[in-house]
Amino acid sequence: MADVRSISSSIVQAANHSASSRLATTQHEDDTISFFIDCNNAGASFTHAVADGVTISDIIKPVYVPTIIHSFFPLNGLANFEGTRNPVLGIQVTDLADGIFIGCTINHVVVDGTSFWHFLNSWSEISKGSIHLSKPPVFQRWFPDDTDIPIRIPRSAVKLKQSNEELESILPGLKERVFHFSKENIAKLKAKANTEMGTNISSLQALLSHIWRSVIRNKRFDPNEETTYRVVVGVRPRLPELPDNYFGNAILGVLVTMKAKELLEQGTGNAAWTMNRKIATLTEESSKMFFESWTASPKFVTMSTFRSNGLTTSSSPRFNMYEEGSIDIEVCLFPETMEALAIDEEFMDVVT
Questions:
Q1: Does 317 have pLDDT greater than 60?
Q2: What burial class does residue 209 get, using C-beta atoms within 10 Å of its C-beta: 0-12 exposed, 13-18 middle, 19+ buried?
Q3: 242: part of which helix (H) or strand (E)?
Q4: Residue 282: how many CB atoms within 10 A of its CB?
Q5: Less Cβ around it within 10 Å: N or C end of the chain?
Q6: 67 HSE (CA, 13 A, CB side)
Q7: Ordered structural domains, the chain, with CATH
Q8: Which residues of 61-90 are buried (b: 16+ CB within 10 A; e: fewer)?
C-alpha cells in the first residue's frame, strides 16, 4: 500500500504556480484568440487507485505495452486545449498486488520534456527532505524583439474537434513496444557509424538513424520515395536568454529527409551524418527567426502534419533518466511493421 499522505504532501510542495493552474483564453474582436496560463491556484489532480490482482510482472513482462497502462495515467486522452477546464498536472498512485505505479501527466502547452523532468527531480528532492531546491525553476518568459503580446491566433487555425478526431482514428491501430538499448550496444553502433563516415556523430543520432533505417526497411518503401525523420530539439543551449532551468517550452522540430534507397543503401553512418548536419542548422539565429515567424503567423501541429512515410521522436531519449548510459525507446507502429521489426536481425542485434 502506497504512503498516499506522504506522496500527496510532497506533490503540493513541488507543484509550482504553472503546474497548479489552468489554461485560459481571451477572445479578441478581430476573430482571434489568445491562450495564457491563469495562475489561479486551482490545483493539480491527485488520484489514488487500486488495480486488483495486477502485478509488476503483468506490466513489464509483456512484449507489447499492455493497454491497462493507459488507465494508470490521469487526464489520459485529453487534448492540450482541454486544459482550459481540466488540471494541467495530474498524478495517480495505483496500488498493484506487489507494488505501486506512479503515473504523471502534464499539459504540453505548459512544459516540454526538460521542464517535466525538472519537476520530477524537484519532487524527488522534496520527498527526500530537501528544504531548498538545487535548481529552482525560472518562470521569466522570453519573446523575440518587437513581438506583439499576447500572441493572437486566428480562430480558423484552432481546429480543436478535427485534431481529436484525427488522433482517435489513428491511435487504436498502433502497437506499442519498449526497446532497451544498453550503453555497450549504443557505443558499438556509434563507432560503426563514425567509422563509415569518418566523423564524430553522437550516440543518439546513431541510434535514431538505426531505428529509422530499420523501420523503413520493414515498411518496404519504393526506393525513390522520400522518407522523413522529425527530431524534436531543445533550444535552451541555443538561446542565451533562456537558462537551463527555464520552466516552460523551448523546443523546435527539425525535419530530416532522404530517399528510401539512399537511406537503406548508404548505411547508418550516412543517415546519422545527414541528421547531424540538419540539426546543426538550428542555431541561435535560425531559432529566433523561427519564433519571430511563428508569432507573426501561428501554425499548429496536428496528426495530418505527420507523414505516413516518416518517423518522429519526442520526449527525447537523451533525458537523464536511464541507468549508466542506456536508452529505452517506446516505438509505436502498425502491427505488421512492428512484427517485421521484431524479427529483423540487423535491428534486434542492437536491442538488449
A1: no
A2: buried
A3: none
A4: 18
A5: N
A6: 5
A7: 4-137 (3.30.559.10), 160-348 (3.30.559.10)
A8: eeeebeeeeeebbbbeebebbebeebbbbb
Does residue 80 register a pLDDT over 70? yes
pLDDT in tens, 266-283: 999 999 999 999 999 999
Confidence of residue 324 (pLDDT cuts 50, 70, 90): confident
Point out which residues pair with 35 in neighbouring strands. 25
Enter the C-alpha cell of residue 265: 543503401
Residue 11, pLDDT above cutoff 80: no
- For residues 345 and 20, the model is more confident at 345
- C-alpha cell belonging to residue 298: 501561428
On the CB side of 79, CA atoms within 13 Å amount to 15
Q: How does DSSP assign 118-183, residue by residue?
A: HHHHHHHHHHTT-SS-SS--B------TT--SSPPEEGGG--HHHHHHHHHHHGGG-EEEEEEE-H
Chain centroid, CA 197 distance in Å: 29
| CA 116/CA 275 separation, integer angstroms | 26
C-alpha cell at 149: 503580446
Asked if 103 and 72 count as a contact pair (C-beta separation under 8 A), the reply is yes
Identity of the amino acid at 176: E
